[in-house]
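Morning. Coffee machine broken again, so started the prediction first thing and wrote up yesterday's gels while waiting. Chain of 177 residues, entered below exactly as on the submission form.
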Amino acid sequence: MNWTDERVEKLKKLWSEGLSASQIAAQLGGVSRNAVIGKVHRLSLPGRAKAGGTANAARTPKRGASAPRASNYTSRVATRTVTRQQGATMLKEEIEVDAVNEIQYRPAANVVVPISRRLVLTELTERTCKWPVGDPLKDDFHFCGNESPDASPYCGYHQRLAYQPVHERRRPAQPRG
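Came back before lunch.
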């Protein structure tokens, strides 16, 4: 099938009216839906007009109740204009985004960080803390090595870091210093 100038003009007209590729193929005759889609892309035609509203109305979800947030975050709803591609056309639409401000978490001042014994793997025993410190690919990598109670792999300090209650895990990790 050859794309004559008349057929191309009819394709452009039908496409701008919002007909689907299948409907255009049926009206042109002797051409498949995929051939119509391919020609539309080669001609770089803009996105097809939609019947019964804009693309924005169909895609913008209604805002219900927000999901609960952790107590160390505050949020507000902001409207932002974004550009997105639909087919060969760039569309601008306004979307609602949650702007999140993080509230600084300050750990208790009475936490005592134990001094590490800096043991290497071969020096670890059943009664030493196996908390890794540093990058395993570097020469200064070591394990905590402090005494670990009972059958725990970690000392008391590293146990509190490793085994946090569920409500504590939801807080973002803060750098210790």
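The chain has three domains: 5-42, 55-59+68-102, 105-177. Going to sketch it on the whiteboard this afternoon.
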